[in-house]
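PROTOCOL LOG
Step 1. Enter all chains and additional molecules of the complex.
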Amino acid sequence: MRRRSGVADPLWYKRAIIYELPVKSFFDANNDGIGDFEGLVQKLDYLEGLGVTCLWLLPFFPSPLRDDGYDIADYCNIHPSYGTLEDFKRFLDAAHERHLQVVIELVLNHTSDAHPWFQRARTAPRESVERGYYVWSDTEDRYREARVIFVDSERSNWTWDPAAGAYYWHRFFRHQPDLNYDNPAVLREVLQVMDFWLELGVDGFRLDAVPYLVEREGTSCENLDDTHKVLKAIRRHIDARWPNRMLLAEANQWPADVRPYFGDGDECHMAFHFPLMPRMFMGLHLEDRHPIVEILEQTPALPDPCQWALFLRNHDELTLEMVTDEERDYMYLAYSADPQARLNLGIRRRLAPLVGNNRRRIELLSSLLFSFPGTPILYYGDEIGMGDNTHLGDRNGVRTPMQWTSDRNARFSRADPARLYSPVIMDPIYGYQAINVEAQERDPSSLLQWMKNLIGLRKLFPAFGLGSMELLHPANRKVLAYVRRHGSDTILCVANLSRSVQAVELELAAFAGLTPVEILGYTDLPVIGERPYFLTLGPYGFYWFELQRRDGHA
Amino acid sequence: MASTGLSSSAATATPEPAGTDILVGLLSCRDAGTIGTVARAVRDGLANHFGTLAARVVLATEGSEGETAGRVREALAGSDDRFEIAPCRAGTALDMPYHGIPGKPHALQALLTRAQALDARACLILDAGVSTLTPHWIRWLAGPIFEHEVDLVSPYYDRHAYEGALTKGIVAPLVRALYGVRLRQPAAAEFACSRRMVDWLLEEDIWDREGAPVGIDLWLTTAAAAGDFRLAEASLGARVSAGRGEEALDLATTLAQVVGSLFVDLDARVEIWQRRRGSVAVPLFGEPHGGGSLEAAAVDPERLIESYRLGYRELRDLWTWILPARTIVDLGRLVNAPAAGFRLDDGLWARVVYDFALGYRLRVLARDHLLRSLVPLYLGWLASFVLQVRGLSGAAVDERLDRLGGAFEAEKSYLIAKWRWPERLRT
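Step 2. Run joint prediction.
Step 3. Record the structure below.
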């Protein structure tokens, strides 16, 4: 029986609040030390209560797990540590019952070297279709202009394979050979994989590493026209068969370079806005709106059905690829005094430790995330201010078990602590005894309760997900102000990026006659007139105002 | 006799009629004693007031189907009827005391679905257990749909000032404040709606909601109020139900069911009611209101006040989970107030109801306990209300209720602020 997607609204992803989680880290129902789908089902009530509307699951496929599952060995199954395909179906049904959409990872660019396609290709005749599933070369000289992305672990994008007697191409780790999209059979295989999951009812895919699908000599092998042709073909296929499903592109590029991934509304529905994220942290540290405004002003308009995906933190390092060298130096100095926190071109830390566990800074950044034009993505654990462990290898320090209670293993699992896939956070500030869901659910002033309230507010006002944005330019650069509009709704957002009280005069004459109603407390402020509107904001304070016309029944 | 516009067919599997202007849905459960009268009123009402329209009568019945259907056929005999029994799912067994038609949500859904399938311009729903239903009800309920392009006509029955106090004190003012419509008796068993309202209601996520058997009447009204529709009231005179042999429910159970249904619905329509401001009166059609002589219910304010005082002593500690300290202090002052001067301020009462709605949403207590703990406070409000309206004319009582509704509107910002940031529940 064909299972239905969980949603009828074709623009559901624009209204969504996405919650990103690794299944292995969330809850372990069978107590083997690794989170699983049954555990996730048991925690769906928590997620529903939090108010998020969409779950983005990190890779859960069979894999040697040398890149945390982004090295896929079988696209159409579940890693046995996480459960079975039946468990996944039960999870999907349970999520849809709660009106939670589900987006899964699809790693289009490469497979694991353990994937049968690669094993078959290594020994297949040189000109065969099977060999052609991957990109081969007799020398390392091809595609010289393509940069190495994982500079800390790889020196080249080519690796010699003795069985094949040739080099194979990989943009990431050497155990992740790139698929060859010049071979039509590869696209057919990928479409079959997508059909498999869409048939089950998943609501969308996060398409990993899409800029690198196609290689061409003399180019950076990123963002090529032929890559866009592949994506358009995928979109055509999905639109023809699977209404209301969504494609989210991971393209760590400048906004102008990401824009083509939306096409004319005929490629991806969404794409991450990578450069915005470090600039939010930069603006906060500099106490100056300039970095944020600059990148927002560089951000091109999107076709109507398209949307940016916004985030503060995710499962990777805080990437600093899309900043200048000087900005990168500043960010390293400001946010990773401990060199242990640096990885590749980024900082492997969670939200709370990045901002010194300062509640007001977390709230301010969250208020920006939830009011900027785009769909916010919340990384698991950040809603309770979880910490990290920079002494774990790679990016594992931000993928530690979810902290549910102050009991052993943070009640993530009843397994012996030594069996856990990762140690839980145990330091005095962020340890599970101090930071956990149970405590914060009881505490009406906790970050978790605050986050629930903020999510509720975001959902109440469609302008945040669907509306336009106009930046205001007050003289005080410590204050960031902007207007979100959708239909008859107008929301004015004002944020103080500094640690001290700030005053600001806003040019709001265009809204003369309207009453600003502070959204959190539903408090009226004086009616806007022709003169600049004066406001003061506390340290890291922010206001969202609904501009209402008080002329009776609405 | 004028043509009723009805065509004859008593079979349940009738061929699709060529066109239907008005579908009259009869909801029945063990109503053999009254349904004949109701069916005759329908026949005459259609004949007298909608003689040129093509009508269809659909019976949704629970139990004694053959006997009930037979009574309807008999009543409609000789008038070239179209009559059918709607496919209704069996009533869901309830684990709570309940008065009404078992499986009513599904019966209603079936009737509205039938109206949609027939593309009827109007759909009129009637409870077959009402003994005072007259042909005029048909006229005043359905007429505004055809003549004034109204989408929902809600009844406005003649009631004594003390009757229907739960509606007067909580339901109506809350519906007015939240959805901006001044319906005086929301949640009625009888109503009429337009074609587009039928579509809207069938799309609503209410039919299988937990508690639907007791909440569906109210939810239909709030669903209509939440949309962009024209609403009206029809003054119908007194409504007397023959009863279906059940024992009367105690007040605590009734209050928990009614108010609980309202609070459940509140949570589901946040995006609507938090954005709606002000309220409008709805047009009133029908008979002059309050013309009949209504028998006063026996209400003793002294006993109500004593119940309030007892409740305050027994439940004060529990209320601290729900109500802010200021409210409890204000309520405490009333405990010592002399009976003659016992007045519960409208604004205070509105805030109490709003805080209970918040407490219900946040589950600060087991929900049933929370709702039952509202009873003494409600009795206090009722005592205050009775003392204020005793001896007043119907118009003066209406004016007093209008002021109460205004207070609920004025305090709406209190609810919104605390709803959006519930950290401040008890502050």
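Step 4. Note key features.
The mean pLDDT of chain A is 93.
The longest helix of chain A spans residues 184-200.
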